[in-house]
Amino acid sequence: xxxxxxxxxxxxxxxxxxxxxxxxxxxxxxxxxxxxxxxxxxxxxxxxxxxxxxxxxxxxxxxxxxxxxxxxxxxxxxxxxxxxxxxxxxxxxxxxxxxxxxxxxxxxxxxxxxxxxxxxxxxxxxxxxxxxxxxxxxxxxxxxxxxxxxxxxxxxxxxxxxxxxxxxxxxxxxxxxxxxxxxxxxxxxxxxxxxxxxxxxxxxxxxxxxxxxxxxxxxxxxxxxxxxxxxxxxxxxxxxxxxxxxxxxxxxxxxxxxxxxxxxxxxxxxxxxxxxxxxxxxxxxxxxxxxxxxxxxxxxxxxxxxxxxxxxxxxxxxxxxxxxxxxxxxxxxxxxxxxxxxxxxxxxxxxxxxxxxxxxxxxxxxxxxxxxxxxxxxxxxxxxxxxxxxxxxxxxxxxxxxxxxxxxxxxxxxxxxxxxxxxxxxxxxxxxxxxxxxxxxxxx
Length: 444
Description:
This protein is an alpha/beta fold.
């Protein structure tokens, strides 16, 4: 009996344990932190051997294969030791793919991947395609494979998840964009992060499809130097394409296999340039799966968007409070600021992942009247924007930040939480940060 050891007892770890047990592995799960009660219950019920708040090396180094959670870096001492002992260390995505023939639509990118993933699932559901959504959001891929209920999987894939794949390949891969992010995990080398994102297409063949942003200079430069085997379906707002999706006046046009689909951008429920691109990517997938054109149009028009992504919370005294907690990097915040139509009080800060704020300067100059820092260390933010805005305040909690915004806001202004940073200094994760913002606004 092969021994499967799992490092990390979150969604991906427990999903792998469920699948491993079902496939006849001897399973052991170990987490350095405390495992949440809901996951402990699952492990106990399935009689899976587990431990938390420690890693017992004698129970780990005898593994035939190790699945490490995406949050654990390659540089962790235990991972280094496993590699030295020639024990394969893989991701949950790779492990799950060994036991599934079900085709995958895989979505990655620095920004937009959650919106695109949700939008595709919404389109497939309305098109009566039996699909399951998960990966970096919602259910783990491994758990969905174990349940074996779907004809398609729609998976959001982070760079950390892609780092641990060997043979996994999506039938349809989508790369929304690449901007510097998570550089703290990639030796502060942008090229390492780029390579990581492109792993999504590395095992694809000529039967597969690769959908990508043809306006993104980082993507186009990489593709010029590195051939991709999959059939390429670009999308663009700047140029007319022979094949793929592009903008003609205010219409999205999609050309695939001699079929053409058009829809007006004004019919898309999510506004803004970046959302037009998200819609292009999702509609391209729908076309490949031959979903009815009318269904695509209706789905685009009634899609509600994603929580914590430019989510309008409340209007108080004619001031709109907007939750964009999901903006964990500079590029995401760029889109948020770009879409602001009125004077904005901007709440930002958190764990800096090697951020460079230069690109934001013109937008801040034009749209931001006050900055509220929400982080433990705000020196870099103060250096970047201190001379541009009149008001720059530091706060130590979400309540304090929202109350300060309330004081600084005039009628017609926006208050925007778009942190451009990770959340782990003051919050559990970006969802926790977004929920705290919404609660603080509702308590004003």
